[in-house]
Design a protein that fits this description.
Length: 94
């Protein structure tokens, strides 16, 4: 097992850790190990992508049977593309 030293730890953090350790019935050192392990192990080892998020959302809702959505058809766009060549937009730089 590895060991680490944490320097310049805020006094309030140490007090809260000591209080938390007492609430859980363990030593300060055991509490710090638990806090570090919990925080590191809950996060994915790699950075998630948008596809990962989609897969997780899909997996969560699949048992409910709402994975296929009926989307309304899009209407033709009526937006116009502005013509910036008009003199109203200022003189053309040479």
């Amino acid at each position: 097992m590895a060991s680490i030293t944490v320097r310049n730890l805020d006094d309030n953090v140490k007090k809260r850790l000591r209080r938390r350790a007492a609430e859980h019935g363990r030593s300060l050192e055991a509490e710090v190990r638990a806090v570090l392990s919990d925080s590191v192990m809950k996060r994915p080892a790699r950075e998630e992508t948008g596809a990962d998020l989609f897969d997780r959302i899909h997996a969560r809702f699949k048992p409910l049977g709402v994975t296929e959505l009926k989307l309304p058809k899009r209407k033709a766009s009526t937006d116009r593309v502005p013509d910036f060549s008009s003199p109203a937009y200022g003189p053309e730089e040479k």
